[in-house]
Amino acid sequence: MKNTKELIMEAAIKEISEKGYLGATMDGIAVKAGVAKGTLYYHFNNKEDLFNYIIKEGMNLVKNDIEEAVANEKNIIDKFEKLCYMQLKIIYDNKDFFKVIMSQLWGIEIRQTELRDVVKDYISYIEKYVKEAMDEKVINVDDTHLIAYAVFGIMTSVTVFELLNDKEINSIEDAEKIINYILNGIGLKKQI
Amino acid sequence: MKNTKELIMEAAIKEISEKGYLGATMDGIAVKAGVAKGTLYYHFNNKEDLFNYIIKEGMNLVKNDIEEAVANEKNIIDKFEKLCYMQLKIIYDNKDFFKVIMSQLWGIEIRQTELRDVVKDYISYIEKYVKEAMDEKVINVDDTHLIAYAVFGIMTSVTVFELLNDKEINSIEDAEKIINYILNGIGLKKQI
Amino acid sequence: MKNTKELIMEAAIKEISEKGYLGATMDGIAVKAGVAKGTLYYHFNNKEDLFNYIIKEGMNLVKNDIEEAVANEKNIIDKFEKLCYMQLKIIYDNKDFFKVIMSQLWGIEIRQTELRDVVKDYISYIEKYVKEAMDEKVINVDDTHLIAYAVFGIMTSVTVFELLNDKEINSIEDAEKIINYILNGIGLKKQI
Amino acid sequence: MKNTKELIMEAAIKEISEKGYLGATMDGIAVKAGVAKGTLYYHFNNKEDLFNYIIKEGMNLVKNDIEEAVANEKNIIDKFEKLCYMQLKIIYDNKDFFKVIMSQLWGIEIRQTELRDVVKDYISYIEKYVKEAMDEKVINVDDTHLIAYAVFGIMTSVTVFELLNDKEINSIEDAEKIINYILNGIGLKKQI
DNA sequence: TATGAATGAGACTTCATTCAT
DNA sequence: GATGAATGAAGTCTCATTCAT
Fold first, then answer.
1. Interface residue D154 vs chain C (CB under 8 A)
2. Residues B104 and B150 reside in one and the same domain
3. How far is C107 from chain D (nearest CA, A)?
4. Are B3 and B73 found together in one domain?
5. Domain match, B85 and B163 both
6. A106: exposed, middle or buried (C-beta count within 10 Å: 0-12, 13-18, 19+)?
7. Does D107 contact C103 at a Cβ distance shorter than 8 Å?
8. Is B48 an interface residue toward A (CB < 8 Å)?
9. Is B105 part of a structural domain of the chain?
10. Using CA atoms, how far apart are residues B136 and B158, in angstroms rounded to an integer?
11. Which of C132, C186, C179, C180 is nearest to C155 (CA)?
C-alpha cells in the first residue's frame, strides 16, 4: 500500500502535467491525492519544494532504469540503441512526468533554472554514449554536444506528437522507426 | 514609430517568454510596454485574447517568411533545405516567441488546445514538403507524419540547447550541422 | 474629505490597538476603512509596510506637535513642564496609537526592533531636555539617561491606568498631579 | 529533575516572550520544551489554558516572594523600599515573564482582560503600601491610586530601558537610583 | 485613446487541534 | 503519559478586470 508522500507525488505530477506549475493548485493536488490540504504542508515545505522533489526523484528513477538496461548490453551499438529504446519507453510510461519537464523548461524563475540543470545533466549522460560511439568509429559526427541535443529533441518530439494528435504511438514499430531515424542521422552503421 | 498595440504585443511576448502565460502579469506587460494597465484593456478584451492574438499574428509572420523564401527555390531538395534553414533562422530571430509557444504547448486549458491547433497546422506544412520529397524519390521514409514531427523536434532542440547552455548557436556552420543531421536522418541524397 | 490612504491608516490603528499586530487582520482593517481588501494592497506592499508606515507617520506627528508647543516657552522649566503636558495630552488624544506602540514594543521580530528604534529616538528627545535642565542647575540628577526612561515610564503608566480602570483621566487636575510627581522626582524646583 | 509540565511552562514563557501570544506556536513551545506537540495537549486543554496557567502561576510566585521579603521589615519606610527593591529584582530575574505580561496587557481579547485583572490586583497591592505610608504621614500625596500606577510605570520603564538599550541594569547602584527617584517623587523622607 | 484607483475571487500558507497508536 | 501524522479554518497576498475620468 502506498504511503501518503507517494500519493501526493503522483497526484502532483498529474495535476502539474495538466495545468503547469502555476496553474496547478495545492487544492487540486490534495483532492487528487485524497488528503487534506494541510497534509501537503506536513510533508513538503511549500509548492516549490514539492515540485523540486518530484523532478529530482523522477529523474533519478529514469536514470536508474536506463543505466540498468544499458549495462546489460555488450557493444556500443547495442548500448546506444538500448538507450534510445529505453528513453522512448520511459517517456511512454511517464508521459505526465515528461509533460511537467517540458512545460517547465522555459522561463527565468529559479525553479526553472534548477530544472534545467537536471535536464542538462541528463543530456550530458546521452552525450557520453555519443562520444563513446564516435571513439569506436561506429558513427561519425563532428559535434557530439549538438548531436546529443538533437537526439533529445527527437525524443521530445514524440511527446509533442502524441499531444498534438491525441493518439499514442507506443507500438514497437513506431519506436523502431524513430530509433532508425536517429541512428541514420548520425550515420551509425550496423556492423554485420 | 511603433503604435501602442505593437508595443503591447512585443512587451507581452517578452513577459510571457520569461514567466509563462500564468506567470506573466498584465501589470508586467504594461510596464514593459510603457503604458498604463488600463490601456491593455482598451486594445484587448482580456489576457487570453492578448495571448491568442500574439500566437496567431506571430505564426502568420513565420509562415509568410518561410513561404516567401521557399518559393524562390526551384527543386524540392533546395526547397527542403531552405525550409530547414528558414525555420532555424526564424527561431534564432524570435527566441522569445518560440519560448512562448513551447512553454504553452503542454496542458489541458483551452488556450493550450487552441495553440496546439496552430502548431499542428505548422507541422502539417512541414509534412507537405516531406511528402513532396518522397514522391520525387529524393528521400525514402515510410512515415511522413512521424518524420515531420522529428524534424520539428530537432528544430526545437536548438532552443533547448541555447536555454541550457546560455550561449547562442547562430553561426552558419552550426545551422549547417543541424540541417545536415536532419537530411541524413531522412536519407536525402544531394543530386550532383 | 479624507483620502483612501488616510482612511486605511486610521482603520489600521484602531484594529491593531484592539487586536495587536498579529491579531489584526487585513480583512478587519478593510472593513473598518470601508474599502475592499485589495485596496489595502494597492496603497501598501503588505501588512508590515502598513504597520511601519503608521508608526513612522504617527511619531512624526507627535514630535512636531511637541516641538511646536515647547518652542513657544522661554525658560527650561516651562519647557520641561510643557513637554510633560504635551506628551500627556497627545497620549490622551491618541490612545489607540499608543496602545499599538506599547503592545508592539516587546518581542524579537524585525518590525519590533524597528519600532524600538523609533521609540528610542523619542526618548533621546526627552533626555535632551533633561540634560538641558541639569546644565542650568534647575534639577539635579546623576543619570539623565535613566531619568528620561523613568519619565517615559510614568507617562505610559497613564495608559496602563486607563486600560486597567476603564475610565479616562483627562482632566487638567489629573495631568497636573502626574506632572508634579515627575518634577518632584527629579527635584525640579520652581524658581520664584 | 524538572517534570514535563514545568518544562512546558518554561518553554512557553520563553516562546511567548519572544513572539507574543499569537506569534508563539505550539510547535515552537514543543520544540523548546523538547517534547512532542501532542504532549502539550496532554497537559493543557489548549493554547489559552496554557497561557492563563502561566500568568496565574507566575504572578503567585512573584507575590509570595515580595510578601515574604517585605514581612521581615519593621517600619513602613523600609517596607516600601523593600517592595520597590523586590519588584525590581523580580523583574530582573524574570524578564521573559514580564515581557509576556507587558505585551499582552493591551487589547480586547478575553485572555487580555483576564490578564489585566491579575495586574490590577497586583497594583492594588502596591497601593496598599502607598496608603499605609500616607497614613503614617511619611509621604504626602493626594491620589494614592494614581501614585501606585506611577510607581508601577517606573518599574516597567526599567524593562523598556533594557529592551531599548540591549544592556542590563542589574547593578545595585542602578536599582538605588531608580528607587530614589520613586521615593523622591512621592516626597518620602527618610527618618533619621 | 488612455489612465490608474479600486475591486474581490482565489491562490498559498500557517497552525491550533484531534486522534489512533 | 506521550507521540506525531493528519486536518481544515482562517489568514496574507496576487492579479485580472472594471470604470469614472
1. yes
2. yes
3. 5
4. no
5. yes
6. buried
7. yes
8. no
9. yes
10. 29
11. C179
Name residue D49's amino acid.
D
pLDDT tens-digit readout, D22-31: 999 999 999 9
State whether D29 and D55 are in the same domain.
Answer: no
Residues A39 and A60 in one domain: no
Burial of D1: CB neighbours in 10 Å, binned 0-12, 13-18, 19+: exposed
- Can you tell me whether residue B45 is helix, strand or coil? coil
Please tell me the distance from the alpha carbon of residue D26 to that of residue D37, in angstroms, as a whole number.
7
Do D21 and D105 sit in the same domain of this protein? no
CATH number for the domain that contains residue D152: 1.10.357.10
How far does B182 lie from chain A, in Å, by closest CA? 6
Kindly report, residue by residue over B114-135, the tens digit of the pLDDT.
899 888 888 888 888 888 888 8
Domain boundary among B26, B44, B62: B44
- Please tell me the total count of domains within chain A: 2
> What are the tens digits of pLDDT across the range A36-90?
999 999 999 999 999 999 999 998 888 888 888 888 988 888 888 888 888 888 8
Residue B156 lies in a domain: yes
Based on the domain organization, do D113 and D177 belong to the same domain? Answer: yes
Determine contact, residues C178/D146, Cβ cutoff 8 Å.
yes
Cα–Cα dist C140/C186, whole Å: 7
Least confident of C90-99, C142-151, D98-107: C142-151
Report the predicted TM-score, pTM, of the whole model to 2 decimal places.
0.88
Alpha-carbon torsion angle D51, D53, D55, D58, nearest 10? -140
Contact A139, A133 (CB under 8 A): yes
Q: Which of A158, A136, A134, A138 is nearest to A146 (CA)?
A: A134
- Contact residues, chain A, for B105 at CB < 8 Å: 102-103, 160, 163
Environment class of D43 (CB within 10 Å of its CB; exposed 0-12, middle 13-18, buried 19+): middle
Q: D and C: touch, per 3+ CB pairs < 8 A?
A: yes
Any chain A CB within 8 A of the CB of B184? Answer: yes
C156 Cβ under 8 Å from any chain D Cβ: yes
Question: Looking at the predicted structure, is the pLDDT value of residue B192 above 60?
Answer: no
Owning domain of residue B109 = 48-185
Please list, in sequence order, all residues whose beta carbon lies within 8 angstroms of the beta carbon of residue D44, skipping any fewer than 6 positions away: D8, D50, D53
Of B103, B156, B185, the CB nearest to A107: B103
List the CATH number of the domain containing B10. 1.10.10.60
Query: For chain D, what is the largest distance between any 2 Cα atoms, rounded to a whole number of angstroms?
Result: 61
Q: Is residue C191 part of a domain?
A: no
Residue A24, judged by CB atoms within 10 A of its CB (0-12, 13-18, 19+), counts as: buried
Asked whether D43 and D6 are in contact (CB, 8 A), the reply is no
> Does D131 fall in a domain?
yes
Which residues in chain D touch residue C103, judged by CB atoms under 8 angstroms apart? 103, 105-107
In residues, how long is chain B? 192
**Alpha-carbon dihedral A61, A65, A68, A71, rounded to 10 degrees:** -120
- Are residues C132 and C153 both part of a single domain? yes
Tracing cell 523600599 back to the chain, one arrives at D81
